[in-house]
Amino acid sequence: MRQNKLVMVAMAGFALTTLTQCFTKKKDEGKRLYEQHCQSCHMDDGSGLKGLIPPLANADYLQTHRDALPCIIRHGMDGSIIVNGVEYNKEMPGVDLRADHITNLLNYIQTNFGNNNPRYTLTEVQELLESCPPER
Amino acid sequence: MSKRNNLSLKTGLAAGFLALASTAFYSCDSGSKSTTLPIYGEREPVERVVNGETVVDTIYHQIPDFAFVDQDSQLVTQETVAGKVYVSDFFFTSCPTICPKMKSQMLRVYEAYKDNPNVVLLSHSIDPDHDTVAVLKDYADRLGIETAKWHMLTGDMDSIYDIAKQYLAAVEEDANAEGGFSHSGDFYLIDQQRRIRGHYNGTLEEDVDRLIKDIPLLLSQKEHETK
């Protein structure tokens, strides 16, 4: 009887912690990271800036370069790229984020701003990050 | 009981009437154009004698003469903005922080006054060594702007930092700031006499809305002033 009670308490405690996890800021981590690191250039709505900064909203590049995105976030990029048929050439600074942060950030971008692309798993991002091209 | 009711009814009516009357007056007032913008910066009173009487004139802070080069290698001076209202800001093309937002907001001002030759935009680079004419040209082309309306300026670094002070803008070279320079994201509204008439946070849409609404106040003022 006494043991039953203990198990109940433990289970309740577990349920409570799991449940509260759903309501922490972690759920919005991708959005938070976007606002912190990307928004000032790619804008609130992912529209970018004319011919200077490429859009993320409905951007074909997110699909065609899906496997390159984790490394681009971590190490930045420069040189000419084409997004939705428009040429852009502006250096993007990298942000040294952890693999789980990059996963959340990419999943936020891939499923917002009119994008409806498949999500990444953490393992997938970790593997992609391991094969980043050598830093400039 | 009924007396009290009566009283409150009377007061209520009176208050209602007063409110109505005041709105009537108020609407009359706002109908006539009486809104003016403040004049920023230091001012000094200057006394002079006219017909034996002492008159006090106020000398307002004025943006001094300047000479910079724009994205088309054209010289831009006080003559370029003579008799015009202009909006000024400070940025640099490689700025990773607030500049893209400032530029997206300045584009809204550009679009709003694209067809009005009496409004000009001047964006000063605070990193003129990097932001050469060629770099500014590429930047302007990618924004899709016309030089005659929106001049991107480069020039002698000291001259640019000196003129920034005249706009009461905070800019400095700062190795600790992202991109190497720290600066305020403000837009400055300058009137036909090169006086500062407004400053707005160039990263905030609401503030830039206010700027877009303030510009006509200066444009209409031109006809009344003879100075």
UniProtKB/TrEMBL annotation, chain A:
Keywords: Heme, Iron, Metal-binding
Any Pfam family: Cytochrom_C
PANTHER family noted in UniProt: BLL4482 PROTEIN-RELATED, CYTOCHROME C DOMAIN-CONTAINING PROTEIN
Keyword Heme: yes
Provenance organism: Pontibacter chinhatensis
Domain annotation Cytochrome c: ranges: 25-113
Protein name: Cytochrome C oxidase, cbb3-type, subunit III
InterPro entries: Cyt_c-like_dom, Cyt_c-like_dom_sf, Cytochrome_c-type_DH
GO MF: electron transfer activity; heme binding; metal ion binding
Automatic annotation (TrEMBL), chain B:
Disulphide bonds in the chain: C95-C99
Superkingdom assignment: Bacteria
Pfam (any one): SCO1-SenC
Membrane-spanning intervals of the chain: none
Residues annotated to bind Cu cation: C95, C99, H183
Record's signal peptide: 1-26
Domain Thioredoxin: 57-220
Any GO molecular function: metal ion binding
Keywords: Copper, Disulfide bond, Metal-binding, Signal
InterPro entries linked: SCO1/SenC, Thioredoxin-like_sf, Thioredoxin_domain
Keyword presence, 4Fe-4S: no
Family: Belongs to the SCO1/2 family.
Name of this chain's protein: Protein SCO1/2
Organism: Pontibacter chinhatensis
